[in-house]
Amino acid sequence: MSVHTEIKKVTTHTLQRMKNNGEKISMITAYDYSFARIFDAAGMDVLLVGDSASNVMAGHETTLPITLDQMIYHASSVVRGVNRALVIVDLPFGTYQGNSKEALASAVRIMKETGAHGIKIEGGEEILESVKRILAAGIPIMGHLGLTPQSIYKFGTYSVRAKEEAEAEKLKKDCRLLEEAGAFALVLEKIPAALAKEVAQELLHIPVIGIGAGRHCDGQVLVMHDMLGINTEFKPRFLRRYLELHQEITAAAQHYIRDVKSNDFPNEQEQY
Ligand code: KIV
Q1: Which domain range does residue 90 map to?
Q2: Within this chain, do residues 154 and 259 fall inside the same structural domain, yes or no?
Q3: Quick one: which atom of ligand 1 is closest to the CA of 122?
Q4: Does residue 35 contact residue 47 with C-beta atoms inside 8 Å?
Q5: Dist. CA 186–CA 204, nearest whole Å
Q6: Per the omega criterion (within 30 degrees of 0), is the bond before 92 cis?
Q7: pLDDT class for 4, splitting at 50, 70, 90?
Q8: Same domain, 211 and 224
Q9: Could you tell me the distance, in angstroms and rounded to a whole number, from the CA of residue 21 to the centre of ligand 1?
Q10: Taking CA 65 as the corner, what is the angle to CA 62 and CA 67, rounded to the nearest 5 degrees?
Q11: Confidence at 6, pLDDT banded by 50, 70, 90
Q12: Among residues 6, 129, 164, 189, which one is catalytic?
């Protein structure tokens, strides 16, 4: 007799229920099968195949260079490692801003070729037509406002956004527009905690996931390389490191080098 244990998959509805019940949502980026498996088995609610892959996987300075084909490669690897978590994939720069037909075509490729459960897209009013067209095709959308890294050359720096009244008002308007259009959730990046609190607790009914947006959001997201201490240079105030993997991996690599050079590895038991 086989014992069949049903895994309760996280859906966009699960996240809405979690917000309604005041249960915080955990989200982390993942770019490959092996880490996706670990995060999924650990109980992470959402895995984001972020275009931060451009930085942490490919070594580019910004998120702009990564292509749709490269995102699809990362996303399909992540999906193969997941049993329970919701998998959301960033639409990369240049694949949705041109017009809404192009945006839909990009989103459809992600859904068809990766098996992911939805897409994330940066921007508000400017991309609303694309948002509506993608949603009309039945593809769930997570919005992303505040510091939107694909616009880094417009902003000029990675500093906190929406500190001034005018930008905060525009952000709130964009939040409302995305919710009204039907986005299932929103990422708010690097904005004042008080503004994120107002959006999450007063303005919006959909879940708000923060990164550098304070503790009143409905959930939190971090880039896995930052959270695990694989990056040592990136130390923003909002980041909490849960491991110092850079040091641990360096020590392990040096140990291995020593063992190979001294002919300690492999030993008698480690050969055939
Ligand atoms: O690409 C990414 O990793 C992201 C997160 C920072 C939210 O968009």
Answers
A1: 3-241
A2: no
A3: 8
A4: no
A5: 9
A6: no
A7: low
A8: yes
A9: 25
A10: 135
A11: confident
A12: 189
| Rounded average pLDDT over 242-254 | 98
Query: Do 190 and 208 share a structural domain?
Result: yes
- For ligand 1, what atom is nearest to the CA of residue 149? 8
Is the C-beta atom of 29 inside 6 A of ligand 1? yes
Residues 252 and 207 in one domain: no
CA of 48 to the centre of ligand 1 (A): 7
Q: For 172, which DSSP code?
A: H
Residue 189 annotated in active site: yes
Query: With the C-alpha atoms ordered 177, 178, 181, 182, is the resulting torsion angle positive or negative?
Result: negative
Q: Which amino acid is at 240?
A: R
Mean pLDDT, the chain, rounded, equals 97
Q: Give dist(CA 210, CA 10) in Å, integer.
A: 19
Q: What is the pLDDT of residues 198-237, one digit of tens each?
A: 999 999 999 999 999 999 999 999 999 999 999 988 999 9
Q: Give yes or no for residue 71 having a pLDDT over 70.
A: yes
- What pLDDT shows up at residue 3? 59
Tokens 């049993």: give the residue.
83
Q: Are residues 214 and 265 in the same domain?
A: no
Q: Are residues 178 and 104 in the same domain?
A: yes
Residues 153 and 182 in one domain: yes
Nearest protein Cα to ligand 1, atom 4: 50
Residues making up the chain, counted from first to last: 272
What is the tally of structural domains in the chain?
2
CATH number of 205's domain: 3.20.20.60
